[in-house]
Design brief:
Distance between the termini: 36 Å
Radius of gyration: 52 Å
Number of strands: 15
Oligomer: single chain
Helix content: 40-55%
Length: about 500
């Protein structure tokens, strides 16, 4: 008992140390993860600021281009006024200034028509347009703005103009800036999932880190946006042709994986420790088995000589004038010693199972044991109505199990009480119940009593129930367990054997 208690204390001590190590690993890992998370949030803050500044730059560029467009419109109007002055000028009037204004225009495409739409002058247009006679035949008339130039009471000219090629090129630049802005947002250096929505926070304009199937599911997208909004405040930006937009983002996949790393690490350590424990346990049990087998075979060998001698002396006594009852009892004990020697000799080897009558085996053993235990202990064997019950048994080893259980019951009753043996069955099993009226076993020790070294006796080895369980479960493929126990009222042990 003291050995098992010490072993149990060491197990708890090792478990406590392992728990402390695991908690230390978790604490340190969480600290590292917290530092990584803070660094990532700092990077995300810089990224968010960069997005805001980039959006402002795009807006300023758009505003600048709008100013250019307005200025081009004013220049076109001035150009039209100059053309009007040239048309209204008399033969002697100096129109050099207006001609200079007209000649300086090298960028704005202009077409001057009369009130009927007939083309009079074209400037800075494609060569194909130069052959157009009437404005109605102009292929892209809708792209031109117009201004009416009144020069007599009912006479006027119309000047058609559109943005210059320079402005068109600048328009391409601003579109590229907007497209590049979205690319930089969704393909970010922080490698975080990003969703850009319109002002309603529902329509997705751009995204990064999500599959097409995911984006085609409005419910999943809405849930993801709500989750991102809870994690981080969305970035509000104003973009050309998009208006107010919101950039939603969440923590990176690396950080999420790091949060589970301590548990993954613990799982790996746990698996490694479990495998190591099983290997060491197997090695320890193998070593114990070898020791037990060696001791058993040596014991059987040592018993052989005195048993042979006792058998010879008993034969000699039979020839003398000795009470026959004494000789009979000596015969029984010698036979018992032979049985014990055979038990020891079979430890470590696969026992041979033969069809035996279970009732007969138990009845014969009870008859032998009853005369060799305290007279204050009564063993009652309630034989079943159905007889015989044939099972594959090794008689010598099975009797050893019954003997161990009965002797433990006698010790638990302090040599005074009743032992009841009952046999019952169901469809697949035969049950042997051995009940006593002893001290009982606490429920927390129902499994502990079968472990090697556990004993409640001051001079016990703690191997009887361990061997009994091994004989039943490994050799006879059955079960041995505590069926029930009540403190100070008794215990019932059950053997379950397959039919």
């Amino acid at each position: 008992m003291e050995l098992y208690a010490t072993k149990k204390k060491w197990k708890w001590l090792l478990f406590f140390c392992a728990a402390i190590i695991f908690m230390a690993i978790i604490f340190y890992s969480n600290k590292l993860i917290k530092n990584v998370a803070q660094e990532e949030r700092r990077r995300m803050a810089l990224w968010a600021d960069a997005i805001s500044y980039r959006a402002e730059l795009v807006n300023h560029t758009e505003h600048f281009f709008d100013q250019i467009r307005i200025e081009e419109g004013k220049r076109a109007l001035i150009l039209g006024k100059a053309w009007q002055k040239v048309n209204e000028a008399s033969l002697n009037e100096d129109v050099t200034f207006y001609v200079d204004i007209m000649s300086y225009n090298s960028t704005i495409p202009c077409i001057l028509t009369d009130e009927k739409g007939n083309v009079n002058i074209t400037v800075n247009v494609d060569s194909t347009i130069n052959n157009v006679k009437n404005i109605a035949d102009l292929p892209d008339k809708s792209s031109y703005d117009s201004v009416v130039l009144q020069y007599y009471q009912n006479d006027y000219n119309v000047m058609y103009y559109k943005e210059s090629q320079i402005y068109t090129n600048l328009r391409v630049v601003i579109d590229n800036l907007v497209e590049q802005f979205f690319q930089e947002v969704v393909i970010n250096s922080a490698s975080v999932p990003v969703i850009v929505t319109d002002a309603s926070e529902q329509k997705v304009i751009a995204s990064g880190g999500f599959t097409a199937d995911f984006l085609n599911n409005p419910t999943l997208v809405a849930e993801e946006i709500a989750k991102m909004k809870d994690q981080n405040e969305p970035i509000k930006v104003d973009l050309p042709e998009q208006g107010t937009c919101y950039v939603f983002f969440e923590e990176s996949s690396v950080l999420r994986q790091l949060r589970f790393f301590p548990f993954f690490q613990f799982f790996i350590v746990f698996i490694f420790a479990g495998v190591a424990y099983l290997l060491f346990s197997y090695a320890r049990k193998s070593e114990q088995n070898q020791v037990w087998v060696g001791m058993s075979k040596e014991t059987a060998h040592q018993l052989g000589t005195p048993i042979s001698s006792l058998m010879a002396w008993n034969e000699l006594l039979k020839e003398q004038d000795v009470d026959q009852g004494i000789i009979t009892e000596i015969d029984k004990d010698v036979h018992r010693l032979e049985t014990i020697a055979q038990r020891f000799s079979k430890i470590g080897s696969v026992p041979e199972l033969k069809e035996e009558d279970l009732v007969s085996v138990i009845e014969n053993f009870v008859g032998y044991l009853q005369t060799r235990i305290s007279s204050r202990v009564d063993i009652k064997f309630n034989k079943p109505e159905k007889q015989p019950i044939l099972l594959p048994l090794n008689r010598y080893l099975f009797e050893w199990v019954i003997e161990n259980l009965c002797k433990n019951a006698v010790d638990a009753m302090d040599g005074k009480g009743i032992i009841v043996i009952d046999i019952s069955e169901d469809v697949h099993h035969i049950f042997i119940d051995i009940a006593d009226t002893g001290k009982g076993i606490p429920s927390r020790k129902f499994k502990t009593i079968f472990k090697p070294g556990f004993t409640s006796k001051s001079r016990g080895w703690g191997l009887g129930l361990t061997l009994a369980k091994r004989i039943i479960e490994e050799y006879h493929k059955g079960k041995l367990f505590v069926k029930s126990s009540i403190i100070d009222r008794g215990t019932t042990m059950r053997i379950a054997l397959r039919k």
